[in-house]
Amino acid sequence: MTIRADVVVIGVGVAGLAAGLAAQRAGRSVVVLSKTAPRRGATATYYAQGGVAVVLPDTDDSVAAHVADTLAAGGGLCDADAVTSIVADGYRAVADLAAAGARFDTGPDGRWSLTREGGHHRRRIIHAGGDATGAEVQRALDHAAATLDIRARHTATALLHDGAQITGVAVLTPDGPDIVAAPSVILATGGLGHLYRATTNPDASTGDGVALALWAGAQAADLEFIQFHPTMLFDGAAGGRRPLITEALRGEGARLLDADGEPIMAGIHPLGDLAPRDVVAAAIDARLRATGADCAYLDARGVADVARRFPTVTALCVAIGVDPARQLIPVTPGAHYSCGGVSTDPYGRTTMPGLFAAGEVARTGMHGANRLASNSLLEGLVVGGRAGVAAAEHALSAGPATPGPETSAPRAAIDRAELQRVMSTEVSVLRDGPGLAAAAEKLDRARPLTPRTRRDFEDAALTTVAAAVVAAAAHRAESRGCHHRADFPDTDDGQAHSVPLRLDDTRDARVA
Ligand SMILES: Cc1cc2nc3c(=O)[nH]c(=O)nc-3n(C[C@H](O)[C@H](O)[C@H](O)COP(=O)(O)OP(=O)(O)OC[C@H]3O[C@@H](n4cnc5c(N)ncnc54)[C@H](O)[C@@H]3O)c2cc1C
């Protein structure tokens, strides 16, 4: 049975729900797909701790100052116009979310409390529940989205198009394969952390949106820039999703130490423990390699009232037997955020008519070579809402879609554990030419696969996206942002541009 809608949204995190609600407000019929069961913790949005970066009126902050910090973190690859456009729209989007019921933490004067995170020169991060911002953003959006037609356990497996424009989505439902016919499709599928053995991302973050877009012939960019969060809780576990220790803890004075108690960030960057994430992650990685230690430590013993201000972090630490008020917190860098993704403008329009993307799956030009902390919830809210409006407008002008059968070429995949091993070894915080060549060779040996389950489909998506990341990382023979090449440690002004990628006729990722 074919489902019909004006707009199909794939994903129920911040970007998907912002998009779905905006398209519905614009008067269009909307169907929202989510590959998971409806449960807490199904989206990356739910796990966000630190907060949302936003310029509040009547403060010493300004859009220009927030833009300047974002561009500085982005290592010369942000699109300044996109950054300005998104940052300038931030307060309106956050105020709308508050009007829809989101409750952000306030100070004694009743105004939203502001904290600081790495790379920000001002206190401009609003938060909720102390360090449970994402859970509150998700709660408020879920509540507002009660009016939306949300189909849980529906995995989007292919984008349908007639060569010129989008006509719908192929889905795997609990009752088998189906089709959603729609002239507008919004990818809001989140990140790709499960390219790696250990990640802060939930199970659903398998790069599906980038793979769907590449398979359909759309363009992606900046995929080599994968942010490794410096402080993932080190609990000795082998892999999978691992908890994050928010950077806001360092914003409140916590310091990074090595196993001998020496400060790791001393003398490395003027912002010290609050240097941009790539700098901190690379410094920890280098110290661990030099000393052979399994983990570094975060000293939060000097943070005032740590259990009240950081209840999530405290509970995570207590669960592994560590009291952050009295003991050091063991941490290690982990795959966290994809700065690149499906190429879009600041309104979520991709290179393909009818296809939109928003949130972590998209490359709007906001993050460039490295994302500034707490800029992603902001981007998801702003661009999600805009993509919903743009998709609604497109649906109105394009009219009802009539999808033909799925025509995608057969997929290929390698074993997920093997893929994660090679990515974690060769394409991690530090890369080099021979390691990237070895990874490419391994991925080339992918076997043809006809996806019958969600897991099969995800394996094919992970394999395509891994190959695209490796191609982009091999192409960029320099170090910039969160892409660190051991064989090209310097930044090369001649490479201060994005690397756009498409699949070629043999389905290999090629620089466009
Ligand atoms: C631990 C952690 C802490 C973070 N802290 C912060 C922070 O403090 N501030 C900040 O700004 N950012 C933070 N981030 C980043 C931010 O949370 C994410 O980038 C953002 O929430 C992504 O939102 P999204 O809507 O793009 O994707 P998600 O919230 O991940 O949602 C993706 C959705 O797509 C669905 N999906 C995926 N593939 C398919 C498919 N094939 N078919 C159907 N459905 C599919 C998933 O089921 C899910 O519903 C953090 C991230 C993590 C993991």
Automatic annotation (TrEMBL):
<dbReference type="Pfam" id="PF00890">
    <property type="entry name" value="FAD_binding_2"/>
</dbReference>
<keyword id="KW-0274">FAD</keyword>
<feature type="domain" description="Fumarate reductase/succinate dehydrogenase flavoprotein-like C-terminal">
    <location>
        <begin position="461"/>
        <end position="497"/>
    </location>
</feature>
<protein>
    <recommendedName>
        <fullName>L-aspartate oxidase</fullName>
        <ecNumber>1.4.3.16</ecNumber>
    </recommendedName>
</protein>
<keyword id="KW-0662">Pyridine nucleotide biosynthesis</keyword>
<dbReference type="GO" id="GO:0005737">
    <property type="term" value="C:cytoplasm"/>
</dbReference>
<feature type="compositionally biased region" description="Basic and acidic residues">
    <location>
        <begin position="502"/>
        <end position="512"/>
    </location>
</feature>
<dbReference type="GO" id="GO:0008734">
    <property type="term" value="F:L-aspartate oxidase activity"/>
</dbReference>
<dbReference type="InterPro" id="IPR015939">
    <property type="entry name" value="Fum_Rdtase/Succ_DH_flav-like_C"/>
</dbReference>
<comment type="similarity">
    <text>Belongs to the FAD-dependent oxidoreductase 2 family. NadB subfamily.</text>
</comment>
<dbReference type="InterPro" id="IPR005288">
    <property type="entry name" value="NadB"/>
</dbReference>
<dbReference type="InterPro" id="IPR037099">
    <property type="entry name" value="Fum_R/Succ_DH_flav-like_C_sf"/>
</dbReference>
<comment type="pathway">
    <text>Cofactor biosynthesis; NAD(+) biosynthesis; iminoaspartate from L-aspartate (oxidase route): step 1/1.</text>
</comment>
<dbReference type="InterPro" id="IPR036188">
    <property type="entry name" value="FAD/NAD-bd_sf"/>
</dbReference>
<dbReference type="Pfam" id="PF02910">
    <property type="entry name" value="Succ_DH_flav_C"/>
</dbReference>
<dbReference type="GO" id="GO:0034628">
    <property type="term" value="P:'de novo' NAD+ biosynthetic process from L-aspartate"/>
</dbReference>
<dbReference type="InterPro" id="IPR027477">
    <property type="entry name" value="Succ_DH/fumarate_Rdtase_cat_sf"/>
</dbReference>
<dbReference type="InterPro" id="IPR003953">
    <property type="entry name" value="FAD-dep_OxRdtase_2_FAD-bd"/>
</dbReference>
<keyword id="KW-0285">Flavoprotein</keyword>
<comment type="function">
    <text>Catalyzes the oxidation of L-aspartate to iminoaspartate, the first step in the de novo biosynthesis of NAD(+).</text>
</comment>
<feature type="region of interest" description="Disordered">
    <location>
        <begin position="480"/>
        <end position="512"/>
    </location>
</feature>
<dbReference type="GO" id="GO:0033765">
    <property type="term" value="F:steroid dehydrogenase activity, acting on the CH-CH group of donors"/>
</dbReference>
<keyword id="KW-0560">Oxidoreductase</keyword>
<feature type="domain" description="FAD-dependent oxidoreductase 2 FAD-binding">
    <location>
        <begin position="6"/>
        <end position="377"/>
    </location>
</feature>
